[in-house]
Design brief:
The complex is a heterodimer of chains A (about 180) and B (about 575). Chain A has about 180 residues and is of the alpha+beta class. Helix content of chain A is about 35%, strand content about 40%. Chain B has three domains: about 190 residues, Rossmann fold (3-Layer(aba) Sandwich), CATH 3.40.50; about 150 residues, TPP-binding domain (Rossmann fold, 3-Layer(aba) Sandwich), CATH 3.40.50.1220; about 170 residues, Thiamin diphosphate (ThDP)-binding fold, Pyr/PP domains (Rossmann fold). The chains are: A alpha+beta (about 180), B alpha/beta (about 575).
Chain lengths: ~180, ~575
């Protein structure tokens, strides 16, 4: 079976140790996590993990069930790229002299639609939000000018289809 | 100072107490959950709780095991025979890490257990303090849930959740780690039992559409087969299960943990599936047209090679845990619910039927196994004793009423194949994890969980020495368990594999054993050794009629093998009889 990129979205309670518990599920099965991010979701005190993995369809179903089995997990889903809207965020730190001495760098920044976050006498920082290919392209282009630091976030994603976590929480309340 | 009695009188009916310590609260929580029997081992970080155990000794019985692993297995044994949640206590650091094997065993065998560990004071967390270890991190992959308490006020709610999670749905182990300062801290206690957690829905609603599909498949079946597991016992569905079998007329076979859910001599009971299971159940798995799996998870030791497992059959899977559905075997119909409900629904809808021709297939294959394996196991003509005849002798004197606790290896397979059971919750063994050393401490708990029953631990000479120190617990507590060591001076199962698959290179499997009888006598336990067939009956009779702990060493044939056998990775159809 062919391996594909899947985005796993996990809605959880806000408990210490849950990150460990979820990552342990991947570790036990020797699965590499491509990217991982977490934040509070649209519901107060409900957190959302966005985990990107490359695996076969039958395996992703099983792993999502294992995640959902954890006590503090409210619901877990998996989606393919065309079912989600997703972005990554990258920061690039470059020495300021490059900005003034190399005319070309200004064009690179302009063409990439990135934003300058801060400029100081020693360095400046630009930010780009987009697909992996876009942030990666900019990294490659800036490298010759001396990238002092580069960092890229994990994928964040929302689904095209409705998630309905509030409804699920309501049914849970009624079941109780 | 708090006057505990005054406090109690004031709040008699509400489970509220003003200004008590976290440590006392832990004991109060245990009593609220009717967990008045706990196994454990004290140490620095859990001393405040032990101090309360001392004060509450008239209400809470603490059993001091000789190693923390023993406490977990004892708690497991207790849970398995009583159906209640077992409790184990340990201190931080090594005390906590010593629990891990028992926790992993309880996780894979779905045993309800709450472990409570002491932890260094919260201001020392992460400082590599004396006996500090990250037991939350360590136990995460092998617990159903775990939680670290750093404030006394958290204790009632977390303890209530711990017991609820451990026993509900598919049961499992929960570990609660309590920092020493939280044990000392005073707070106003009130207790409310947990009746639900919003992110945890342990009992899904049964789909009646699925029930109808299952009924249809069953009604069309010509050669149906039931494979049942521990779900029947955990779901307290023994009666519904028996009704289902008697009404449907379907022959039924069991996994090792399903054993004893149906009496051995019930006509529908056709034996064990899996690596050392019976001949007919394994072969006919690949002949049946509908396979009804009830409360079992298609473990690799049951299925062998999955690509050739029951491919001809429609599969109906009765399963509570969503993660087990379509995990190893894709089911045609899934009844995702507690099997007690699923079976009730089926019983209301299925027709009474009989399958005489199909049943004859079992009889034919049973006759082959009887001739090639069972007869020589139970009626050997060679001088050396067999494990099988030792088990048969226990049957003779227990009349099938005893709880049999087994360890892991050849003796376990032989005991499960030949032991007779009349009632449920009678087979206590380490199935999924295969934990050598399980049986002796588990037998302690099994007996304390079913005091009116005879408990016989059947153990190999290898596993016995892994937790032999628990003889001390048996001695101190005077737990009237019967310990039978089937001694072949080998790690028998590994030796068997070495013989069959590694050209008889017996690497590190021969055991030079001590005098087990003398060791037992050192613990003031009555002990006998049997080497000859003529003595077996009389000694087993003496053991079974004793009302005290009793040790029996049976010296068996050194190089006997357990058959039938499905080699690892082979198909259930490739089962070997010799």
């Amino acid at each position: 079976m062919e391996k594909k990129i899947y985005t796993i979205s996990v809605y959880t309670e806000n408990n210490i140790g849950l990150l460990n518990r979820i990552s342990a599920i991947f570790l036990k099965r020797h699965i590499n996590i491509e990217s991982f991010s977490t934040s509070e979701s649209e519901i107060k005190n409900v957190f959302r993990f966005v985990i990107v993995v490359k695996m076969t369809a039958d395996k992703v179903v099983k792993i999502v069930k294992q995640i959902e089995k954890q006590i503090d997990v409210i619901k877990a889903y998996y989606h393919t790229d065309d079912e989600t809207i997703f972005q990554e965020n990258a920061l690039y730190k470059v020495k300021s002299s490059a900005l003034f001495e190399e005319r070309q760098i200004q064009n690179i920044i302009k063409d990439s639609h990135s934003n300058i976050v801060t400029v100081s006498p020693e360095f400046f920082v630009i930010e780009l939000t987009g697909f992996r290919s876009e942030t990666e392209k900019l990294r490659v282009e800036l490298e010759p000018y001396g990238l002092l630091q580069f960092v890229r976030s994990g994928r964040i994603s929302v689904t095209k289809a409705k998630m309905g976590i509030s409804e699920i929480l309501n049914t849970f309340k009624n079941n109780k | 100072m708090v006057d505990r009695n005054a406090n109690e009188n004031m709040n008699n009916s509400t489970s509220k107490l003003l200004n008590i310590s976290g440590a006392e609260a832990v004991i109060r929580c245990l009593l609220e959950e009717e967990a008045n029997l706990v196994y454990g081992y004290p140490g620095g970080a859990i001393m405040p709780i032990y101090d309360e155990i001392f004060k509450f000794q008239d209400q809470l019985h603490h059993v001091l095991t000789r190693h923390e692993q023993g406490a977990t297995h004892a708690a497991q044994g207790f849970a398995r025979t009583s159906g209640k949640v077992g409790v184990a206590l340990a201190t931080s650091g090594p005390g906590a890490t010593n629990l891990v094997t028992g926790i992993a065993d309880a996780q894979i065998d779905s045993t309800p257990m709450v472990c409570i560990t002491g932890q260094v004071a919260s201001n020392l967390l992460g400082s590599d303090a004396f006996q500090e270890t990250d037991i939350i991190g360590i136990s995460t992959p092998v617990t159903k849930w775990n939680y670290q308490i750093t404030k006394a006020a958290e204790i009632p709610e977390i303890m209530a959740k711990a017991f609820y999670i451990a026993r509900s749905g598919r049961p499992g182990p929960v570990l609660i780690d309590i920092t020493k300062d939280a044990q000392f801290e005073f707070f106003d206690f009130s207790y409310k039992k947990c009746d639900g957690i919003r992110s945890y829905q342990p009992y899904p609603n049964l789909s009646m559409e699925a029930v109808d599909k299952a009924v249809e498949l069953i009604s069309q079946a010509k050669k149906p087969l039931v494979v049942w597991g521990q779900g029947i016992i955990l779901g307290k569905a023994e009666e519904e299960f028996k009704t289902f079998l008697e009404k449907s007329g379907i022959p039924a076979v069991w996994t090792i943990l399903g054993l004893s859910a149906l009496a051995t001599d019930h006509p529908s009971n056709r034996g064990m599936v899996g690596m050392h299971g019976n001949y007919a159940p394994n072969l006919l798995t690949n002949e049946c047209d509908v396979l009804i799996a009830i409360g079992m998870r298609f473990d690799d030791r049951v299925t062998g090679d999955l690509t050739t497992y029951a491919k001809q059959a429609k599969i109906i899977h009765l399963e509570l845990d969503a993660a087990e559905i379509n995990k190893n075997v894709i089911a045609d119909v899934v009844l995702h619910a507690d099997c007690k409900h699923s079976l009730q629904a089926l019983n209301d809808r299925i027709a009474e039927k009989k399958y005489p021709k199909w049943i004859r297939r079992f009889d034919q294959l049973d006759a082959i196994e009887q001739e090639k394996v069972i007869h020589s196991d139970l009626n050997p003509t060679k001088p050396g004793l067999t494990m099988g005849e030792a088990i048969a002798m226990i049957n003779k004197h227990s009349k099938g009423d005893a709880v049999i606790v087994t360890d892991v290896g050849q003796h376990q397979m032989v005991a499960c194949r030949y032991a007779k059971f009349n009632q449920s919750k009678s087979n206590v063994t380490s199935g999924g994890l295969g934990t050598m050393g399980f049986a002796l401490p588990a037998a302690i708990g099994a007996k304390m969980g079913a005091m009116d029953r005879e408990v016989v631990a059947v153990i190999g000479d290898g596993g016995y020495q892994m937790t032999i120190q628990e003889l001390g617990t048996i001695f101190q507590q005077q737990v009237a368990v019967k310990i039978v060591v089937l001694n072949n001076d080998f790690l028998g199962m590994v030796r068997q594999w070495q013989q069959l698959f590694f050209d008889k290179r017996y690497a590190s499997t021969e055991m030079v054993n001590p005098d087990f009888v003398t060791i037992a006598k050192g613990f003031k336990i009555e002990a006998r050794r049997v080497k000859e067939r003529k003595d077996l009956n009389e000694v087993v009779k003496e053991m079974m009629s004793s009302d005290k702990p009793y040790f029996l060493e049976v010296c068996v044939e050194k190089e006997d093998n357990v058959f039938p056998m499905i080699p690892t990775g082979a198909s259930v159809s490739d089962i070997r009889l010799e």
